[in-house]
């Protein structure tokens, strides 16, 4: 492998490392601010009857599932994080740019919520769109959902176009 090829490869992977870190910082900083300035249950209206910051301690997973089962959830989350990282590294050259972004987002979100579980014993949730749905979530959840949507788009739309050609 030539030096030029290796430097391009390292430079290219730095994009995803940088994205991972930026997303993780946004998630962790927002959780830190909410956890250090609000009491559990406090709500700050941002857009009346639509968007609030509401401090919730989630001791389960998405949508309040597995509440109080932090040990099982943490073990499953660590396994998922390991599998995502393994798949990403093993298939880095094979997957598209969109999929790389998607897996980086999913990995960042999973790590962000895992940090909370390990160091707090719960995940800090705060994004509350009462005008749309009743679930309260955080930026890590947003990154995971956007990542999943990007993978679905890649496989349903872009892969279909490749098969048609």
Automatic annotation (TrEMBL):
<feature type="transmembrane region" description="Helical">
    <location>
        <begin position="7"/>
        <end position="26"/>
    </location>
</feature>
<keyword id="KW-0064">Aspartyl protease</keyword>
<feature type="transmembrane region" description="Helical">
    <location>
        <begin position="101"/>
        <end position="119"/>
    </location>
</feature>
<keyword id="KW-1003">Cell membrane</keyword>
<dbReference type="GO" id="GO:0005886">
    <property type="term" value="C:plasma membrane"/>
</dbReference>
<comment type="function">
    <text>This protein specifically catalyzes the removal of signal peptides from prolipoproteins.</text>
</comment>
<dbReference type="GO" id="GO:0004190">
    <property type="term" value="F:aspartic-type endopeptidase activity"/>
</dbReference>
<feature type="transmembrane region" description="Helical">
    <location>
        <begin position="72"/>
        <end position="89"/>
    </location>
</feature>
<comment type="pathway">
    <text>Protein modification; lipoprotein biosynthesis (signal peptide cleavage).</text>
</comment>
<dbReference type="GO" id="GO:0006508">
    <property type="term" value="P:proteolysis"/>
</dbReference>
<keyword id="KW-0812">Transmembrane</keyword>
<feature type="active site">
    <location>
        <position position="141"/>
    </location>
</feature>
<keyword id="KW-0645">Protease</keyword>
<dbReference type="InterPro" id="IPR001872">
    <property type="entry name" value="Peptidase_A8"/>
</dbReference>
<keyword id="KW-0378">Hydrolase</keyword>
<feature type="transmembrane region" description="Helical">
    <location>
        <begin position="131"/>
        <end position="153"/>
    </location>
</feature>
<comment type="similarity">
    <text>Belongs to the peptidase A8 family.</text>
</comment>
<protein>
    <recommendedName>
        <fullName>Lipoprotein signal peptidase</fullName>
        <ecNumber>3.4.23.36</ecNumber>
    </recommendedName>
</protein>
<keyword id="KW-0472">Membrane</keyword>
<keyword id="KW-1133">Transmembrane helix</keyword>
<feature type="active site">
    <location>
        <position position="125"/>
    </location>
</feature>
<dbReference type="Pfam" id="PF01252">
    <property type="entry name" value="Peptidase_A8"/>
</dbReference>
């Amino acid at each position: 492998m030539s030096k030029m090829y290796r430097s391009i490869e390292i430079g290219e992977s730095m994009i995803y490392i940088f994205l991972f870190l930026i997303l993780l910082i946004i998630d962790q900083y927002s959780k830190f601010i909410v956890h250090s300035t609000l009491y559990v249950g406090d709500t700050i209206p941002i857009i009346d009857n639509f968007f609030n910051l509401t401090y919730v301690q989630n001791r389960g997973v998405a949508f309040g599932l597995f509440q109080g089962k932090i040990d099982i959830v943490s073990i499953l989350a660590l396994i998922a994080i390991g599998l995502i990282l393994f798949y990403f590294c093993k298939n880095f050259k094979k997957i598209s740019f969109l999929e790389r972004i998607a897996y980086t987002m999913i990995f960042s979100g999973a790590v962000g919520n895992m940090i909370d579980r390990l160091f707090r014993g719960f995940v800090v949730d705060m994004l509350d769109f009462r005008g749309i749905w009743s679930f309260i979530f955080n930026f890590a959840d947003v990154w995971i959902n956007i990542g999943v949507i990007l993978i679905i788009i890649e496989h349903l739309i872009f892969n279909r176009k490749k098969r048609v050609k």
